[in-house]
């Protein structure tokens, strides 16, 4: 391990060093100091009043005032949205205006409906009386406006009841929603058993619904009936259907007088409503210019008092005591902020800030930027790392988009992804200031992940030599030609090698040949195994660096070493065979070699022997793999038990120079106190971990074959779309067929290959990192550093 000991400590791959600090605020400077700390955003306060309810805390009244102010601001925001300082006075004024406006609007709607009923019901009544043609008596608004008032006005206030003719036939007139008119008529007919006559006419203009504020279509109706019981039933049905009944006199003269009166009052109400709307809009404009600044101010103030409620008074009741976590690099900045708060608050006593000793595990904090933040979020979705644990996001910046590209390799599709990523990046400032839908927000947050996935897809596509599944001679001429000079179909005639190998990627002549699918299958399957074994070895090596950093010698001796031996004795050896076969061009059957390595280790390899001493090496590797299993399982629990007994008996073992004397420091040991050490639990935990690794070594290696499967599926699906859609349509002479084929091909490429296939490759790459890579070294059971910061308030929604 001397080579590893000389390597740098990899501090830049770990979370920031944290410390627990205590702050003692004088009462007069506490609020201002917490405000400045919120602007800095580098201190996470601990709640020292967890046992108290929100109503038992110190600043509960201030929090209530902020909540009430926030309610008022939300009210103004809602009003401004509907319509397109001293908040208490503004609120009272606006509430009064809304009440008056609602009353006036209701009166206006009633009068408008009454006017429509008078206009339409009058003609119905005139026709029923057969005094003249309906056209002579239709209450046209323009005709009524020309009539002269004879002094019998204000009949509306006098009240007019439903009319009754000399024959005893009565009628009820009103207005109802057009969508309810048919059901309303049927109900009247059934209730009166047909002893009524229903007449209706369209209102002719929409009426505003007071409940929804939308304009709706209504129908004017007149129901003729006889008897008081029928009248009571009809009025109840009108009420149940939401129909508004209005009195219409039978006399034409009275109808005209009421119509003029209603029209006059409607004109006055229109003027009043317009003036009220203008006054209301002016009041909202005066508030709206400052509203969003006020909302943010109230949010900050409430956050400050919520934070102050986490503090405790000292014994003198003159100072507030708080505790919190902060990064080591931020201590000087926090001290400067506290000095500034003391100066600005004119306090005679400074704020005390000092570091505390603790056995608690600190929070995990990684400094990220807009490029690395998305990769860190991918890792945190699996689990937040322990304090100062190796951060997989650093490696995922390269490995994640690369494994995606292995499954998505097509440089034509990669260019499409690249254009989309560049669009999001170039419009970064504009999009970051807008409210986006969930899908666009997710794509925008991962714009740099998409950028790298696109670049690696172009690279892998060039290796696969696929541009929308079509190969190109980009890097020179093919190394192969048809077996016969006159042949044009390489699939039937076969290929022969005529020049040096194609310089980069897959030779385009493999396309359409008889050996295309077997060759690409073999290539991508072996490549997947090599990538999987390499990444799993990287994970095991990272577990060594993590154990070395935390001085866990037990993990190095009894986990890292046997795990490395077991994995490489089997699958590292398989990777070696693959490389030797590629380099030598051997026709050895690697399936046969690996199977009979277990079934018949001493058997003759025959034509499957790739190098001298292969049989002896296989026996040695098999024995090492068998030894590695008990090596992982038994020593560590018994050593921990021995160390527990020595500690319990008071022995000193500082000469060991390792952390084995402290079971609490072992990440995979019992994390309880030494006097609660349970050997059974430790042994079962170690047994589960060992079995999981042994079985996982097989299943995880097989899991990397998804790289081969998805890459092959993506390539074949692209070929199907190209040949069965584009080329098929291009075989016709009709321009319409060609355009239709091109459009269908474009939509299939966009929605299936660029949409569904990219999502599938993304999820599979995510699984390979979470399960196959990160479980070799990453615990992910920490908690995130969440500092008190005003920067997060601006994006929060109520």
From TrEMBL:
InterPro entries: V-ATPase_116kDa_su, V-type_ATPase_116kDa_su_euka
Top-rank lineage group of the source organism: Eukaryota
GO annotation (BP), single: vacuolar acidification
Cellular localization per UniProt: Membrane
GO molecular-function terms, A-Z: ATPase binding; proton-transporting ATPase activity, rotational mechanism
One Pfam family recorded for the sequence: V_ATPase_I
Membrane topology annotation: Multi-pass membrane protein
Keywords per UniProt: Hydrogen ion transport, Ion transport, Membrane, Transmembrane, Transmembrane helix, Transport
TM region positions: 402-426, 447-464, 527-545, 565-582, 617-634, 735-754
GO cellular component assignments: vacuolar proton-transporting V-type ATPase, V0 domain
Family as reported in the entry's similarity comment: Belongs to the V-ATPase 116 kDa subunit family.
Function: Essential component of the vacuolar proton pump (V-ATPase), a multimeric enzyme that catalyzes the translocation of protons across the membranes. Required for assembly and activity of the V-ATPase.
Protein's name according to its UniProt entry: V-type proton ATPase subunit a
